[in-house]
Design a protein that fits this description.
The chain has a single domain, classed as Rossmann fold (3-Layer(aba) Sandwich), CATH 3.40.50.1820. Helices cover 30% and strands 18% of the residues. The protein is built from 8 helices and 8 strands; from the N terminus they run H-H-E-E-H-E-H-E-H-E-H-E-E-H-E-H. Helix 5 crosses helix 6. The longest helix is centred in the middle third of the chain and has 22 residues.
């Protein structure tokens, strides 16, 4: 899938709104704030006009799924409070004339969405890297479902590790001939449920595809990859009790580690 970023930036000219209306979570340990902050970056600046960061913190850049930021609302609470990372989630829904879909659809329809999410991710990563309180050596890329596609295929030397939830990281009805953007030894956590309605082996949508329902074959040569397959778990993996600890432990293990 070839992507002309410059062309798409012109097509979706209000792409900056994904950054302007992004949701951010900031641990209180970053500086002179009394409690963890959740809101937009503009709201943070208005609330703390004299803010001075005591240090730089790792960042989790989260790409939400087709349903929006509801899962991000869950992830961000413990990523900020327990993993002590900044959480930043671009708001893709702010893009005017944003392509949408209702599965099943022809692959070309899905590709329009995937291309847009790549541009959105690229734009926002470049913006957050300019923030003076971000530890640029500890950038984690995370994506859920549709956002998991974007986070898994994006290429960048700035990304230290990835967390993909509710996407199997394999060839399917949703994305053909997948090629990960990660390095061969890049830390990679992939969490998927056995009963995922969209990406599991027995999903109706994948009846014409040879799908395993997980990313074992895709990630088999990555020594730092971990694949978590959750039994009796559907697409909303946030309902599974193990998910929180898997994400927090992964972040704690790899942040500040060479």
């Amino acid at each position: 899938m070839e992507i002309d970023i410059k062309k798409l930036l012109k097509k979706y000219e209000n792409i900056d709104d994904t950054y302007k209306y992004a949701y951010i979570g900031i641990p209180k340990s970053l500086g002179n704030i009394k409690k963890n902050f959740f809101g937009t970056l503009d709201e943070f600046k208005r609330k703390y006009p004299n803010f001075r960061a005591k240090k730089k913190l790792p960042l989790v850049l989260f790409m939400h799924g087709s349903a929006g930021l509801s899962k991000g609302e869950i992830y961000k609470r413990y990523i900020v409070s327990e993993a002590k990372c900044i959480f930043f989630a671009p708001n893709s829904f702010k893009i005017k004339k944003r392509p949408t879909y209702l599965s099943p659809m022809p692959l070309k329809k899905y590709e329009k969405v995937h291309k847009l999410r790549q541009v959105e991710l690229d734009y926002n990563l470049k913006k957050v890297l300019k923030l003076d309180f971000i530890d640029k050596k500890n950038i984690f890329l995370m994506g859920h479902s549709e956002g998991g596609v974007a986070a898994s295929i994006y290429k960048s030397k700035s990304v230290k590790a990835r967390i993909i939830t509710a996407f199997s990281c394999e060839h399917s009805y949703f994305y053909e001939n997948i090629k990960l953007g990660s390095r061969d030894d890049e830390p990679f956590l992939n969490i998927i449920g056995t009963d995922d309605e969209y990406f599991a082996r027995d999903s109706i949508l994948n009846r014409d595809y040879n799908v395993d329902g997980h990313g074992v074959l895709t990630l088999q040569n990555n020594i730092n990859a971990k694949i978590v397959v959750l039994g009796k778990t559907r697409h909303d993996i946030t309902q599974n009790i193990y998910v929180k600890d898997e994400i927090i432990n992964f972040l704690k293990l790899w942040k500040n580690r060479e």
